[in-house]
Amino acid sequence: MSKMTLKNTHNLWDGHSRLEMTEMLQQYEDGHIKSLKREVLKARDSVVVLLYRQDTKKLVLTSQWRAPIVFRGDNRPVIEACAGNIDQKDFDNHPKDALAAAKTAAIREVEEETGWHIAQLDYLYALYSCPGISTEKLYYFIASVDEKVQQGGGVRDEGEDIAVLEISLQEAITKIQEGEIMDLKTVVLIQYIQLHCLDYLE
């Protein structure tokens, strides 16, 4: 049976995320062992929450600039579901319950980014965002919102400048088809609602 193990690692960069150079040992089924060097982005775990209003049944999405997209030369803000990091204090408050930490982060991020209060928060699953390069695990949620509790727009001290959009499910599907919604995690959640949860929006 093949197997991969970590031999050693050293830090290349500390910033918003941490970049590590790792040496992995790949053992093949025939017993051969090969040393592999791989850069690993040590990113914090995060949450993503697709919101819908209880009264209008419209989806609540965000629009903001993302540095990697601008770096690629795609000069437009990214339309996406509300998302953000799980802070260390969230894990500290729930030391043995990663899902509880994720729920705490989800509630905070929704209020900071959109200003909406969550009425019901439904957990779907936790998935690795990009296992070929990053350690990030992303916790997926769907939530209904019932009232505005603050202005939203994100935290300026963190460089956020977030616009809030309200569109129907069909409009969101059209934006995916036309390439206006290009964020993978958002597409995953919208397709989940299409497949399993149309009653959310009826």
From TrEMBL:
GO BP term, pick one: nucleoside phosphate metabolic process
| CDD domains in the record | NUDIX_GDPMK
> Which coenzymes or cofactors are required?
Mg(2+)
Q: Where does Mg(2+) bind?
A: 83, 109, 113, 160
UniProt keyword list: Hydrolase, Magnesium, Metal-binding
Highest taxon of the source?
Answer: Bacteria
Signal sequence coordinates: none
Q: Which residues form a coiled coil?
A: none
Domain named Nudix hydrolase: which ranges?
42-189
Pfam name, any one? NUDIX
Which InterPro entries does the entry mention?
NDP_pyrophosphatase, NUDIX_hydrolase-like_dom_sf, NUDIX_hydrolase_dom
One GO MF term on file is: hydrolase activity, acting on acid anhydrides, in phosphorus-containing anhydrides
Gene Ontology terms: cellular component: cytosol
Catalysed reactions listed for this entry: GDP-alpha-D-mannose + H2O = alpha-D-mannose 1-phosphate + GMP + 2 H(+)
Quaternary structure annotation from Swiss-Prot or TrEMBL: Homodimer.
Q: Which family does it belong to?
A: Belongs to the Nudix hydrolase family. NudK subfamily.
UniProt protein name = GDP-mannose pyrophosphatase
Question: What does UniProt list as this organism's lineage?
Answer: Bacteria, Pseudomonadati, Pseudomonadota, Alphaproteobacteria, Acetobacterales
